[in-house]
Design goal:
Distance between the termini: 66 Å
Helix content: 25-40%
Order of helices and strands: HHEEHEHEHEHEEH
CATH superfamily: Glutaredoxin
CATH topology: Glutaredoxin
Strand order of the largest sheet: 1-2-5-4-3-6-7
CATH class: Alpha Beta
Length: 194
């Protein structure tokens, strides 16, 4: 009986995983636009729900949770920047993304800043950084450190170095694998997609 009791937390956790994986989310936010489309062609129309929040920043544990951010099916141009607080060129270019957010407020342009900070620093560095700078762009954090498994899903041009920016609208996309030097550089890339 003693050895069975030792395995109870494992059995309970396994049961939780098995019975919760197929459950529909209560808010329906990460439901695909069409359930009849083949899996590879499904498009997302709503914001995916995060695993948790730290200091107001949505935290996603796995790339599969943020992958919908690269497949929104609407008429908005998305500017998705990969960055980290410890990356000096990333921090230096953030004002241009903030300027873009402000300049296109009310228009169909959405800036999403995907933090690749170390998960152990989400609370001590990332959340205070976002709060102190009062970032207006959407900020999310990705805790999935298996970069080699997913960087090609963003762009085959991406070496994995940050900063990196993926811009898309529908099926059209652009990739910037270096740091952005000005707001006008960003605008030149997004203008053809508007």
């Amino acid at each position: 009986m003693k050895s069975f009791t030792r395995f109870m937390p494992f059995i309970y956790g396994l049961a939780l995983i098995l019975f919760s994986c197929n459950a529909s989310p209560a808010n329906g936010q990460d439901q695909p636009a069409s359930s009849s489309a083949p899996a590879a062609q499904k498009k997302i129309t709503q914001w995916p729900a995060p695993a948790t929040y730290i200091g107001g920043v949505p935290i996603y544990d796995e790339f599969s949770q943020v992958e919908p951010f690269f497949h929104f099916d609407n008429d908005t141009t998305y500017v998705v920047n990969f960055w980290a607080t410890w990356c000096k060129p990333c921090v230096e270019e953030l004002p241009y993304f903030e300027e873009l957010t402000e300049a296109y407020k009310g228009q169909k342009v959405r800036v999403i800043l995907v933090s690749l900070d170390f998960p152990r620093q989400f609370e001590s560095k990332l959340a205070p950084f976002v709060g102190e700078r009062q970032l207006q762009s959407a900020v999310i954090a990705l805790a999935d450190g298996r970069y080699n498994d997913w960087i090609d899903k963003i762009s085959t041009e991406w070496t994995g170095a940050i900063p990196a920016t993926y811009i898309y609208k529908g099926e059209q996309s652009r990739f910037i694998g270096t740091s952005v030097k000005s707001m006008s550089e960003l605008e030149a890339v997004i203008q053809p997609l508007l």
